Amino acid sequence: MVDRKEIAHLGDLVKVEIDEPEKYIHQVDEILKYFEGLDSVEFQSYKSVQKEISYEDLREDTCEEFLVDGKPLIESLKRDQNNFVRAPKMI
Amino acid sequence: MKIEISATEYLSLVRSGSISVEEFIAKTLDHVHSIEPRLRAYITLDADNALDKARSIDKKMRTGEKVGSLLGIPVSIKDNICTAGIRTTCASRMLENFVAPYDATVVSRLRQEDAIIIGKVNLDEFAMGSTTEFSCFGPSRNPWNTDYVPGGSSGGSGVSVSAYECIISLGSDTGGSVRSPASFCSVVGLKPTYGLVSRYGLISYSNSIEQIGPLGRKVEDVALALNVIAGHDLRDGTTSSGAKIDYVADIGDGIEGKKIGIIKQMMGEGVDGEVISATESAIARFQELGAECVPISLDAVEHSVAAYYTIASAEASSNLARYDNLRYGYDFASEGYEFKAYVSKARSRFGPEVTRRMLLGAFVLSAGYYGKYYLKAQKVREMIKSQIENAFNSVDFLVTPTMPILPFRIGEKIEDPLTLYLLDINTITANLAGIPAISVPMAFSSSNLPIGIQILANSFEEKDLLKAAYALEQTTNLPGVKI
Amino acid sequence: MTKIGLEIHCQLTKLRSKLFCNCRANYRGLPPNSNICPVCAGLPGSLPVLNKRAVEKAAMIALALGCEIPERVSFFRKNYFYPDLPKNFQITQYNAYGPTSIGSEGNVEIEGKVIRMRRIQLEEDPGRLVYEGSSEKTQLTLVDYNRAGTPLVELVTEPDFENPRQVRIFLNVLADLVENLGVSDPYLDGAMRVDGNVSVEGGNRVEIKNVGSFKDIEKALNFEITRQQSLVDRKIPVIAETRHWDEARKITVSARSKEEEQDYRYLPESDIPVIIVSREKIENLRKQMPESLAEKKDRYIKKLGIPAQVAEVLSSDKFYSDLFDKTHTESNAREVANLITTDLMGVADTREKKSELKIDNKAISDLADAIVGNKLTRNSGKIALLELVKTGKSFSEVISTLDLSNVSDIATLEKIIGEVFKEEEKAVIEANTNPDAVNYIVGRVMRKTKGKADPSVTLEIIKKMISIK
Which of the four, B63, C69, C105, C418, has the lowest number of CB atoms within 10 Å? Predict the structure, then answer.
């Protein structure tokens, strides 16, 4: 049963401040209950359905500068006067 | 001059000099301006640049310079596909003013062929939804009845194509997001094989299953668009490196002698009666065209919705983690905040459906639940894939209704996410298995709402799939939207 | 018993481009955020495209450490939020459904001790953080993503080390190995980073992080072992925790309070297809690889007849084994090995000291030849060697300046022996019956010639002179 605490924990994992957990409790709980049907699926082995490629077809190790209209990418991003990206302080 | 023409008609009119690109684009834009207040397909219009581009193509034609094969055809692009110079919002308050510094590969291929991007169209936030109601810009409206949803998440694509606001649109299809609006708006929508079309520049929601796909009013238009956007891309390691195929050539070959499987699980309980009869009439048409139709069972479908939403939510929770508002995003000063508090606060701008899926995704991946949900979902996916492969050993195509029900009223189901999820049951099979699927307009309900038919084919069999869709299309003579 | 395990991060500095994009792998010395693109800056819509050479280099490390390379190699996402992670997940490898990381279950022998490798994985380095502002209020983190996405190999060992000394030797061997393979320059700042975990008998496992350099890991481990042992001795439980190495104070400190239990929610990175590595490819790689440590040691023992212990010491030091390979001939190999392992290694044992050595390869070989040919005693040989590497002079120059050439002409020796006989009459008398007395006389002769007398010639002359007498 999903409760306020669980919603807060999940919110913390995905880093979203949840103002009104009540809005989510019922729906998330209902959906997870529906997902529980998966538990009846037999699981012995698992074969990935991911696409496979040969080692030979990987990207060659070459360099290429990325420019936006002739300017470095950082000029299209949030930055300070020294071209650093600013982040809040870390505890 | 009519703007209700198909892509092929447009190309021959421009080529013959009967119309200029500029007049067509101008007229299309006028129409967009007049109809948009009612439909709200577009998030951003790029009218001035579109007209400039139209003039430059006309000039090239006059002076005999080389012109790209799309000759200025007006296209709309779902707003989760990056376009340099035009903002890409994902219909999210997180990216309201985000301008990507590069074009998605599909966009640069369209531009290369001289298509004209007239604007970016609406979607459910980050493509999560099936009605286009979860857009921070508000819902788009179904041109057949503006009180009704246009389907989703590529609702803006479906509406703009259906209501002549462009000729071709690119949407993205994660669980039916191209086919659902195609069905609800009575246009054609294709979800290609995973790996046929580059995802570079498509803002990821569930990256292991989604593909960019074209929508058009005619099957041939969709084939034409696929010709341009399909193919290997060095920037997307999951694209396949097959030889270039012309999807338009021989599209009228017909389907005589082909074998079609009708998926039993998608023709029974919970399916609207009018949808069933439309599907039955499609089956009859296929038979008249010389195909053999047989019922087929895919029992893994029982778990497909749960598996799909488990995988999609899990991937969404990871794909959307990058929106921390540090490198791009909206103005929100970080002074006084500690990192995690800042990020959590900044990310509270995500809308309810995106937040819900991130929470679900975190849950199904978290320690202790991984084996119960995520691994089982992957198993179901494997089972669906192998059952589909099996089915294609005995049939050439699979047929189902695209949507189990008719379009419904805006607001009717928005508070009931699980009900909305269950509406994807017919479309998600193709995404989980990675195979191509197309929705073709089939009929109208007694209430004059569109009904689409879905045809599925084996991986990379788009050419045959388009032939089948084209053959079915030739048997219908459906009206377009009255404007 | 003390158990130590290591987690080593090694940058693949010899690549041109980053792991998943075409930005430069060499980010050092560039202005902030000047080496970034949509992929490594985590922009929406960008996709990682794996660098073939990175896979190849990582596979070479795995092979060199005796690891298995799986047929299917794949990538995973490790999800956590941190300002140096542009996507807020790191693309790495993880053995969820069987081994899919580039290497697993290898082992390396260090001085007879087998160290098992648990896993080798290829992953992306995060960006670099610069902290600015001293007061709590103004504090800010500045991010430079130039390093983000550069290729990194993480090596995880089993807790098989018994003491910090073994760790040091292992790390030296590893540094030499990655250098030798041409995959990394381990001495570039930050190119090789080590975390450790330690437990002593009767205590829990403690992780040590934040160790800046190779030198400090030994200090940090030593400190940690002493700390844990003293807790155990006093019957105080050792808590399972993560501790940070405080470089300034040379101690480990508990990582602050509740560093929450991380839930990384690993999931497959499906933007990167599963990579099929054919067995032929692996065999090809193996053929391209330079000689392994074990192969080198084997060659020294079997082909050159060097004693096993000397071969072990020599082969595990790349600098000296390279020197050996450049200087020895078939006939003087044993002597060159001796000179290096007994005389030179003790003098120049650090990277700095090694770099100061002025070595003329021919001089070393000539010196060994002289010793083998009895033109120089071992004792003089050592003196000459030290002079050689100090000055960089040729062998003949050194011999003439030091006056070390062997005294083996009979007339000179007979004269010196005659003098000794006069001084040591008692010993001469005993010499007929007591072999020790003969040795004593030889010793006296050696002293008189400052070690330059050829011992075997001297002995013969002594025996001749005594029997004549």
Answer: B63
- Closest-CA residue of chain B to C274: B238
* Residue B467: predicted pLDDT: 98
Rounded to whole angstroms, the Cα distance separating A79 from A75 reads 8
Task: Tell if the CB–CB gap between A66 and C36 is shorter than 8 Å.
Answer: yes
* Catalytic (active site) residue B120: no
Please state the φ and ψ torsions of residue C337, each to the nearest 5 degrees: -60, -40
* Strand, helix or coil for residue B382: helix
B to C CB pairs, distance under 8 Å: 102
- Peptide bond connecting B153 to the previous residue in cis, omega within 30 degrees of 0: yes
Active site annotation includes B153: yes
Are the Cβ atoms of A88 and C140 closer than 8 angstroms? Answer: yes
Q: Is the pLDDT of residue B3 over 60?
A: yes
Q: Rounded CA gap, C286 and C278, in Å?
A: 13
How would DSSP label each residue in B128-175? --SSS-S-TT-----TT-TTB---SSSHHHHHHHHTTS-SEEEEEESS
Asked if B185 and B142 touch (Cβ cutoff 8 Å), the reply is: yes
C307 CB neighbour count, 10 Å cutoff: 14
For chain B, what is the mean pLDDT?
A: 96
Domains annotated for chain C, with CATH where assigned, are 3-281 (no CATH), 297-387 (no CATH), 410-468 (1.10.10.410)
Whole-model pTM: value is: 0.90
Q: Which amino acid belongs to residue C6?
A: L
Separation of first and last alpha carbons in chain A = 33
Count other C-beta atoms under 10 Å from residue A81's C-beta: 5
Nearest CA in chain A to C269: A50
Closest-CA distance, C20 to chain A, in angstroms, reads 9
Amino acid found at B135: S
Q: Torsion angle, CA of C291/C292/C296/C299, rounded to 10 degrees?
A: -70
Largest CA distance in chain B: 72
Of C88, C141, C271, the CB nearest to B321: C88
Which residues lie closer than 8 Å to B343 by C-beta, 6 or more apart?
A15, A88, B324, B325, C81
pLDDT in tens, A76-90: 999 999 999 999 988
Which residue of A lies nearest to C38 if distances are taken between CA atoms?
A73
Predicted local distance difference test score (pLDDT) of residue C407: 66
The CATH number assigned to the domain with range B7-251+436-475 reads: 3.90.1300.10
Task: Name beta bridge partners: C407.
Answer: C453
Query: In whole numbers, what is the pLDDT of chain C averaged over residues?
Result: 87
Distance of alpha carbon B115 from alpha carbon C70, whole angstroms:
46
Sorted by where each begins, the domain ranges of chain B are 7-251+436-475
Q: Which residues pair with C358 in a beta bridge?
A: none
Q: What is the pLDDT of residue C257?
A: 47
Neighbours of B, requiring at least 3 CB pairs below 8 Å, are: A, C
CA distance B252 to chain C (A): 36
Catalytic hit among B78, B120, B191, B467? B78
The answer to whether A16 contacts B417, with C-beta atoms less than 8 Å apart, is no
> Cα-flanking dihedrals φ and ψ of residue C24, to 5°?
-70, 140
CB-count burial class (<10 Å; 0-12, 13-18, 19+) for C457: middle
Kindly determine whether residue C15 and residue A61, on different chains, have CB atoms separated by under 8 Å.
yes
Residue B230, Cβ neighbours under 10 Å: how many? Answer: 25
Q: Using an 8 Å Cβ cutoff, are C195 and C207 in contact?
A: yes
* pLDDT for the residue numbered B472: 98
Instruction: Please identify which residue in the block is written with the tokens 């697993």.
Output: C104
| Interval B362-379: pLDDT, tens | 999 998 898 899 999 999
Residues in chain C, pLDDT under 50: 257-259, 469
ipTM: 0.96
pLDDT digits (tens, 9 = 90+) for A11-55: 999 999 998 888 899 999 999 999 999 988 887 777 778 899 999
Q: Percentage of chain B surpassing pLDDT 90?
A: 96
- For the cut 60, the answer to whether the pLDDT of residue B448 exceeds it is yes
